[in-house]
Amino acid sequence: SIEYDEDGTDALTYDGANMLFNSSLNVSGSTVFGRSDTGVHLTTHVFSGSIYVADDKAIVFGANEDATVHYDEAGTNRLIVTGAVDIDMPDNTPIAFAIGEAENAYVTVVTTNSSEAVMLSQDAWIIDDKKLYFGTGKDAHIEYDEDGRNRLIISGSHGGIEITGSTVYFDAAINTAGAATLNSAFVRHGW
Known about the structure:
Shape: elongated
Oligomer: single chain
Low-confidence stretches: none
């Protein structure tokens, strides 16, 4: 049946068999899929073809426009996702989320139980004067100090830095004058 629901939703309603459009359906206004009104079940919509969203028009999620996705053609020329604070990924999955191109993954989030990780499959590039922090309280960091001493700085926590391995190699000899500067806290073994 087709009815104009003046008493309720103030909309033209269709109730009955599925509708089939064999050609394009052009809608100039907003389109809402599914309703969350009292007593009305949310519906699932399956699209067998592509969904085209015009430049600078958003896909809006939630009754209060809680999150949006749109392609900002007029401004930054980028795909912009706004509003969503968290992205919830499936649990216990070897590839829960990935960023890459074709067959080349760049970043992969693994949620496999007991093996949760973020894998970087390409080089990670930390630009000048930015720190890579370690510890919840930013207890230690690594930084290339371009605008200061022009050195790579490894800043350890209050407890110090521990380098382990059967053999530790240094690129240059440290037994010559000026090759290394060691303060009074240095403990030497076996020299």
